[in-house]
Amino acid sequence: PSKLNPAEFEAIRVPTLWLCAENDPTFPEADRKKAQEVLEGKKIKNIFKLYPGTTHGFAVRGDVKNEVVQKAKIAALEAAINFFREELA
To answer: CB within 8 A of 87, min separation 6: which ones?
Structure first.
């Protein structure tokens, strides 16, 4: 996600998975924490995963020569696969 506002967090009605970069100017820590706060009050599954040492786009276009980014990219892909298997089964 990027440049979301709190009203958009309130509108979420389905399970979500948030694969968050540690350093992300388009979804900064304050916004991430606000999203978590809002979604914790809902009775739907919302999973937040934070990947230390990463920046926005790490899971799609991250530098796989960087071991931290490569591991985060693989972990994020596995998390997404597992989430969709569980939610769409």
So the answer is: 15, 45
